[in-house]
Design a protein that fits this description.
This protein has 229 residues and is an alpha/beta fold. It contains 10 helices and 7 strands.
Length: 229
Amino acid sequence: MKLIVAIPAYNEASVISDVIKSVKQTLKNLSLFQKKSVVVVDDGSSDKTGNEAVREADVVLTHVINLGLGAAIQTAFVYARINRADVLVTFDADGQHVARDIARLIQPIIKNQADIVIGSRMLGLGRMPILRELVNITANYVTFITTGVKTGDSQSGLRAFNKKAIQKINIISKGMEVSSEIFMHIKTLRLKLAEIPIKAIYTTYSRAKGQPLTDAPKVFFRLLFRIIK
């Protein structure tokens, strides 16, 4: 069994080292997997993100220029397919996620109960900052309108995919709309979805990294274009 935790990163030099260390510490306790690796996708960072990642990660994949979150996740999927991963986990680089949640996140996949598992901050302990909650509710509505899939946290960066999902999903989006695009694949590929509660850590830094509410129309029309096309 092979597990890959992919961390898309753009200008995260101040936090990326601690994020990688926390993930690697959690992976030590996942004895089911004989091969476990932390892969950072440095999406054309202009700071020292790549240098910091090289010190801690098992693999660093680098985009020469900044292409967007969707492109970084696309690279993670390609890498997971080439390396025949059994489970792929995506994990945000801004320090918002708790690495210990990975163990619970992958349980529905291990038990063959789901092809994709979303870590839901809306189901978790603690309340989202009000602006972030408004962004999330709007994004969930846009996701449902464009994909037909109901979810409590369409924008969560903490997700797990089994081998079937890794092999079948072909990410097209380059930008932030990738989070909603994943639900489009869930619908069209008839993948089984599960959601589990996770804890989120909201710092001034992680709040600044979030998707603004003004992005909602742009995401909607990009997803609509995917459907029409």
